[in-house]
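Researcher: Please generate the 3D structure of the following complex. Treat every line as part of one assembly.
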Amino acid sequence: MKSNKRLIIGLVLLLTGVAGLLAIRSNPMSMGGGMGMMQGGGGMMGQGNMKEMMKRMMGDQLPPGIDATDLPDPQSQGARLLTRYCTQCHDLPPPALHTSSEWPKVFARMNQHMKMMSRMGSILNPTGQEQLIILNYLQLHAADNSE
Ligand code: HEC
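Model: Done. Output below.
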C-alpha cells in the first residue's frame, strides 16, 4: 500500500511536469518572454486545474473536505493559515481527521508535496513560522483533543 501510494504520487508529479511542458510548447510567447511564464497568471497551472486533476487521479486518497466556517476556532490564525495553504490541492482537511501524534507525519508529507509542486505551478509554501502555527493548530484540535 505504501509503495503504491508513492507510485501514484510519482505519476501525478510526472503528469504535472508534462502538462507544464505542453503549456510552454503550445504558447511560444511565454518562452520568448523569458520570465513571462512565471508572471501574471500565477504560474503554468492554476490552482483550479491542480485541484481538478488531483481529484480525478487520487480522489480516494484525498481528505474529506469541510467548510472553513466549520473549523474549530475559525477566526484563529491557525484556521486562517490552514484554509490558505491546505486547500491548494484538495478540499479543507478537518483537524479531527488525525490524532495529535499522527499530524506531524502527515504535515511533513504535505510540506514535501508543496515544495515539489511549487516548482511547477502556483502552489504557495508556508514559511517556517506559519508551518509551526498550522501544525500547532492541527494538533490542538486533533481527534484526541477535540471534544
Ligand atoms: C501541493 C499539494 C498539496 C497541498 C498544498 C496539501 N496537500 Fe494534502 N494531500 C496532497 C496529496 C497529493 C494527497 C494524497 C497523497 C498523500 O496522502 O500524501 C494529500 C492528502 C492529504 C490528506 C489525506 C491523507 C492522510 O494521510 O490523511 C490529508 C489529511 C491532507 N492531505 C492534509 C493536508 C494539510 C493539513 C495541508 C496543509 C498543511 C495539505 N494537505 C496541503 C497534496 C497536497
